[in-house]
């Protein structure tokens, strides 16, 4: 396949409109960078089919698997996340962010990144990896680029403080999964909140349940989407990340 026909193929390859906006943006950037490489260096490579062909990129690595043998080795030899999770929660950036949060909370200045509200001095809160550490740990594209998952997960914009209930409910979900889950359960949550508030006396368990539901309903979808977009751009969207993972096979 010539450079001209390769470019024609790339130009005719549609962007998947069903992808979340963040992933669609990545797909557009990836296409742009591969096109630029072709034009700049006149690389004549073979694209066998639309299932990634001989091209290893973040998107094809995630969808079809890794083709580069060295990257396959790195990915295959990774340890299980649960055996390695402490590294993600003991990184210096993670500890520094928590220390700063503690100081801000004591001054009454700590703000919840997902609700926009101030976190009270006596309120339980967590430091959330907006893009879950496990998602990064198990992402083939990270191993393709030979990047450090712990460093990526603990990028400044990927560390966001939020109330205990939101973080413990989000767990390892993507932001899209969490927000969809919240939307599906909204009616159920509201009904239960009203039911509990109408009761005269609540048990300790019921008070905890009401507090949890109230905290969950404070989640601001737009703020969470914005935090997610910033995290994705910092962790995955840099040209360096995409360029280093746009390997071309001949």
What's the short version?
With 250 residues, the protein is mainly alpha-helical. The chain has helices spanning 3-12, 21-41, 58-64, 69-76, 81-88, 92-106, 133-137, 140-144, 149-153, 164-170, 175-198, 204-217, 221-235, 239-245, and strands spanning 125-129, 159-163.
Which descriptors apply to this entry?
250 residues; mainly alpha; two-stranded antiparallel ribbon; 14 helices
Give structural notes:
The protein has helices at residues 3-12, 21-41, 58-64, 69-76, 81-88, 92-106, 133-137, 140-144, 149-153, 164-170, 175-198, 204-217, 221-235, 239-245; strands at residues 125-129, 159-163. The protein has 250 residues and is mostly helical. The chain has a domain at 3-66. The chain has a two-stranded antiparallel ribbon with strand order 1-2. The radius of gyration is 22 Å and the shape is elongated. The chain starts with a helix and ends in a 5-residue tail after the last helix. Mean pLDDT is 81; it is low at 1-7 and 37-49. Residues 179-226 form a coiled coil.
């Amino acid at each position: 396949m010539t450079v001209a026909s390769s470019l024609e193929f790339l130009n005719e390859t549609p962007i998947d409109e069903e992808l979340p906006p963040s992933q669609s943006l990545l797909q557009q950037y990836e296409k742009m960078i591969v096109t630029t490489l072709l034009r700049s260096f006149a690389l004549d490579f073979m694209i066998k089919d639309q299932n990634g062909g001989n091209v290893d990129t973040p998107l094809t690595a995630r969808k079809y698997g890794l083709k580069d043998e060295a990257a396959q080795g790195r990915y295959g030899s990774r340890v299980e996340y649960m055996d390695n999770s402490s590294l993600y929660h003991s990184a210096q950036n993670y500890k520094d962010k928590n220390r700063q949060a503690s100081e801000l909370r004591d001054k009454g200045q700590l703000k919840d990144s997902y609700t926009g509200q101030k976190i009270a001095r006596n309120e339980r809160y967590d430091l959330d990896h907006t893009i879950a550490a496990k998602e990064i740990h198990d992402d083939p594209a990270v191993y393709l680029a030979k990047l450090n998952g712990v460093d990526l997960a603990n990028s400044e914009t990927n560390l966001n403080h939020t109330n205990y209930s939101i973080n413990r409910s989000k767990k390892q979900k993507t932001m899209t999964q969490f927000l969809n889950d919240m939307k599906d359960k909204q009616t159920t949550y509201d009904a239960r909140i009203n039911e509990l508030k109408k009761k005269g006396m609540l048990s300790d368990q019921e008070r905890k349940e009401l507090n949890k539901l109230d905290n969950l309903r404070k989640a601001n979808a737009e703020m969470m989407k914005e935090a997610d977009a910033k995290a994705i751009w910092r962790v995955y969207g840099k040209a360096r990340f995409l360029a280093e993972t746009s390997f071309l096979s001949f």
